[in-house]
Amino acid sequence: MNWKKNKYYFLLILLAACRSDQQAEQSALIGPTLEVNALADLLDDPSIQLIDFRKAAEFEQGHIPGAINLWRRDIEDPNHTHAGMMATAQQLETRFSKLGIKNNTTLVVYDGDGSCDASRFWWVLKQYGHDNVIILNGGIAAWSGAGNQLSSKPNSLANSDFKLPVNSPQNIMSIDQASLFELLDTDAIIIDARTQEEYSGARMKNGASRAGRIPGSKHLDWKFSVLLQEDHRFKSAEALQEELDFLGADKHIPIVVYCHSGVRSAHLTFVLTQLLGYTNVKNYDGSWIQWSALAELPISQDSLITLQN
Known about the structure:
By secondary structure, the chain is α/β, with parallel strands linked by helices. It is about 35% helix and about 10% strand. The strands form 2 sheets. A 5-stranded parallel beta sheet has the order 1-5-4-2-3. The chain has a 5-stranded parallel beta sheet with strand order 6-10-9-7-8. Strand 7, helix 8 (about 195-200) and strand 8 (about 220) form a beta-alpha-beta unit. It is globular. The N and C termini lie far apart (about 105 Å).
């Protein structure tokens, strides 16, 4: 009888341990970011798919084992009038199906640039109601910095039938140029996530038609939010919030973010909504490439001429 009781208790302990391990894995995948130490324990988990969101040459030099490679062009619409605009739902479904990405997997995305490009990947899928995307905090810099190994082995998956949600709200964090124009001279806060030189008009990147900024916009370089001199991880929520005092305490205030092509502003959108809890943030996909190309839209720029006596 005692042996039977001991056997019963042993089974209960074993089941509890298994359940605890499963809950630990699930908890690691709850939230907007995943730490590299947690990923190290999940590399063989079939419920996740690693996305290396860097250029192919960088991927080939070394990537996290099990990752497949995508780059910006894979989630852009090549037929759009303006460069860099997000792909259509059909384009994404076709591309992801060829890569073998499944609907029921959690996509863990990383890059080598402080999660700037990874945030663009997250934002594009978010616009089509696909929420099952997590950013690896610090990306490949944090992974390598923790002593983890890289692989040069290419990975290929069998074709799948990837479908975006059909009944989910779409474009929930997006705004077009017409709607943004209507917000000028209102209480909405418009943030320019580019460099100070781009914001002032001293520098104009390729693709832009005019130098300057959207009138009334405030400058906040996206790089403020990450530890680019260290392991590329996001700063703490407390440190981030200190940099955003100009937004005030209202987490529901309308905010529009833009940059050159909607990539750096996607990063700031991720920071504001996922790490700091702002609820009314829109990323302007066309950003400066589109705004500067439309001659009827106003711009502002600093004086580039210094008068001397």
